Amino acid sequence: MPAIRPSSKRKAPPDGFADIEEDLLVFGNKMKDAQNAPTDNIPKHQAQWPVFQISHQRSRYIYELYYKKEAISRALYDWLLKNGYADALLIAKWKKSGYEDLCCLRCVQTKETNFNSTCICRVPKAELKGVQDVQCVSCGCRGCATTD
């Protein structure tokens, strides 16, 4: 007979989680809606864009709560990162100069592009003369260069 597992292996959230739990539930519901949305009439690469955008918004929300507003504790911030509420690698990039407005990590990975460079959305709009509609193929961003 298999061993009986405890009902939950996760540690209880630190103090202050109840204050932001409702906002995180809203992000969770948006994510479920985006994942369950029909993708019949759109290209394959565009079907993932809403998921990337909601993940970015949720990570930015937690980043601003901790670094900008100082509204949550370090213990709660670490717990949120550990339990997947925010993207720790993306937040690490936001702390570096020049990456404050980065939309996703795919835009700075040079291995996934044709010419081993960053994504077109990382080019400042002032340098894109004559190009009307610039949109990232991987996440749908229209420009995340810090100088825009």
Helix and strand sequence: HHHH
Uncertain runs: none
Question: Share of helix among residues?
Answer: 25-40%
Shape: globular
Radius of gyration: 18 Å
Distance between the termini: 62 Å
Structural summary, described in words:
This protein is mostly helical and 148 residues long. The protein has two domains: 14-37 and 44-95; 98-148, no CATH class. The chain has helices at 17-36, 49-68, 74-82, 88-94. Helix 1 runs antiparallel to helix 2.
Which characteristics define this entry?
148 residues, mainly alpha, 4 helices, globular
Short account of what is shown:
It is found in: Nucleus. Keywords: Nucleus. The chain has 148 residues and is mostly helical.
